[in-house]
Design goal:
214 residues; alpha/beta; 6 helices; RibonucZ/Hydroxyglut_hydro; metal-binding; MBL fold metallo-hydrolase
Length: 214
């Protein structure tokens, strides 16, 4: 069984997820924890649940999703995975972090890369990796069809989609990613997005004003 814990971190109200199964192996997605109290919340949960963190993963590398990368790497000494096409996005963060109020941002470098078709294993469960560009060039999502769970980053939100006006963004590409890749999956798949609450693919297929297909 998949267990998902959501934290809302930093002024961008970014969703950080700790995902684990019954073996207690855990993966941290998009650690947006910047302040010490945020970092402490993350560590406290992991310790209370007696989890073993095995990987750090960025769905994409905009500043709000990477603020806690180096903290996690220092704390847990784990490999750091992302998509190779988002390396320039990650490398750009130090140039503007202070302007957003994050003067103490610590850059981190990936150790490994995921590509479409790879499989992420967390204990006894597996997620298929889908490349979903448009919001960011190397944006990836993680789909478990069996339990109908999708860790989606900033591709698709409840009633909205990721912004496409940042460097590397493209509106038509994002809509294509959503309609041609995501929407082929079951309506009951629950989307865990990078901001806001959960939704389902069925709801967004039918009612999303930006990308509905029905």
């Amino acid at each position: 069984m998949i267990h998902i814990k959501e934290f809302v971190f930093n002024p961008f109200m970014e969703n950080t997820y700790v995902v684990h199964d019954d073996t207690k192996e855990a993966v941290i997605f998009d650690p947006g924890c910047y302040e010490g109290y945020e970092q402490n919340q993350l560590v406290k949960y992991i310790e209370e649940q007696d989890l073993r963190v095995s990987k750090l993963i960025n769905t994409h590398c905009h500043i709000d999703h990477v603020l806690g990368n180096q903290f996690v790497l220092d704390k847990y000494q784990v490999p750091f995975f992302m998509h190779e096409l988002d390396v320039p996005v990650l490398e750009a963060v130090p140039s503007y972090a202070a302007g957003y109020g994050f003067a103490n941002y610590l850059p981190a470098s990936p150790t490994d890369f995921f590509k479409e078709g790879d499989v992420l294993k967390i204990g006894n469960v597996a997620f298929d990796i889908i490349h979903l560009p448009g919001h960011a060039p190397g944006h990836i999502g993680f789909m478990n069809e069996k339990e109908r769970i999708f860790i989606g980053g900033d591709v698709l939100f409840d009633g909205s989609i990721g912004r496409t006006d940042l460097p590397g963004g493209d509106h038509d590409t994002l809509i294509s990613s959503i309609q041609n890749k995501l929407f082929k999956y079951h309506d009951e798949v629950v989307v865990y997005p990078g901001h806001g609450g959960t939704t389902t693919l069925g709801k967004e297929k039918n009612t999303n004003p930006f990308c509905a297909i029905h």
